[in-house]
Design brief:
The protein has 210 residues and is of the alpha/beta class. The protein is built from 6 helices and 7 strands; from the N terminus they run βααβαβββααββα. The longest helix has 18 residues.
């Protein structure tokens, strides 16, 4: 395994490009999401190997619910399947999202907005499900803190799929994060993608505004 002097304590993951990957490979758009599950666990293995303490994965957002029903059903099932697989591994899971909405999967309500330990709890993994940045920030007015207050500031965000935007990804925790873009679609994940991002991160000047 490649060695790095600087390892981000908390990495954000935006696994984009599932639908475009599906179309390019002759599938229906909704078929792409199930091919995005295994890459997540390949990356999970790398996170553990490199000693990353925390990672946040973007599942789906409130705005994603505008998509066709077949796509909504597919990305919701992919999120549920991913958590069920994770329950057999080592992680402290926190699922953050609006669990009061009918779009939030019933199967994940037992994990909603509270941290649950799986196995040895080796790494903190956060999963944004039916997440809405406005819902998150409105927690300040309601309770004096954002809804995602259990998630710390991110050091590095990696986005697959070539798009150069945050798409509402944890705006408070993203404030000082370095942002690395991978042009390949998420289902085409390669271990080298993660190492490329870490190599790039070694040269980032982390001043936090100072």
């Amino acid at each position: 395994m490649e060695q790095f002097k600087r390892i981000p304590a908390h990495i954000g993951i935006i696994p984009d490009g599932n639908r475009r990957w599906a179309q390019r490979n002759g599938f229906k758009k909704e078929d792409g999401y199930r091919y995005g599950i295994q890459p997540g666990f390949e990356l999970y293995r790398q996170l553990l190997e490199c000693g990353v303490k925390e990672a946040t994965f973007y599942g789906f957002t409130k705005d994603n619910n505008k998509r066709a029903k077949e796509q909504r059903d597919s990305f919701t099932k992919a999120c549920v399947d991913a958590v069920e697989l994770l329950s057999g591994k080592d992680a402290n899971l926190l699922v953050v999202g609006n669990a009061e909405s009918p779009a939030f999967p019933t199967e994940l309500k037992k994990y909603a907005n509270r941290r649950v330990c799986f196995g040895k709890g080796t790494i903190n993994l956060n999963f944004l499900v039916n997440y809405d940045w406005e819902w998150d920030i409105n927690g300040l007015a309601q309770n004096g803190r954002i809804k995602s207050s259990g998630i710390p500031r991110m050091d590095l965000i990696i986005r697959w799929g070539g798009c150069r935007r945050l798409s509402g990804f944890l705006p408070a925790q993203s404030v000082y994060a370095d942002f690395y873009i991978i042009d390949d679609f998420w289902p085409d994940f390669k271990p080298s993608h993660f190492y490329e991002a870490l190599r790039w991160y070694q040269s980032c000047d982390v001043t936090l505004g100072g």
